[in-house]
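Tokens in:
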């Protein structure tokens, strides 16, 4: 299907962070196809995703759960 006008708008930094922590939000925005045409937003999503992964790996675990 052809792209709608709203799919050409880039994600805000807050939207990118929200989608990183809960990928379902990306699907619910209805603008997920935007990442297929916008390398800038895709790179930002990859950046936040990598940062989240590093943070998750650095978090000490006790019994498989974060030890706060």
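Residues out:
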């Amino acid at each position: 299907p052809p792209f709608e006008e709203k799919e050409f708008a880039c994600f805000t930094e807050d939207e990118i962070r929200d989608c990183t922590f809960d990928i379902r939000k990306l699907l619910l925005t209805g603008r997920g196809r935007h990442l297929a045409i916008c390398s800038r937003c895709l790179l930002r999503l990859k950046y936040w995703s990598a940062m989240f992964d590093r943070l998750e790996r650095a978090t000490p675990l006790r019994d498989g759960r974060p030890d706060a």
